[in-house]
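Milestone M4 deliverable, item 7.
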Amino acid sequence: MSANSAEPGHGDSLAAWVTVSVVIVAFSLGTLFFWLDQALLVWASAGLAALGPIAGWYLKRAGFGVGGSKSKN
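Output delivered:
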């Protein structure tokens, strides 16, 4: 790989990790609650899954995204 290539970082940032983690937890809980036949909690986990990208967007705007002012890169 060339030193001048524009490597996007593959989402290695706090914003990306929080987004993915929240969505994975939400889907895992949703699956469990579906299996336990708890419809209200399935919908609550769907709401949590929708909050994951919102949290990631907020963290990116706060500077924790790839190339952000507060990111490690």
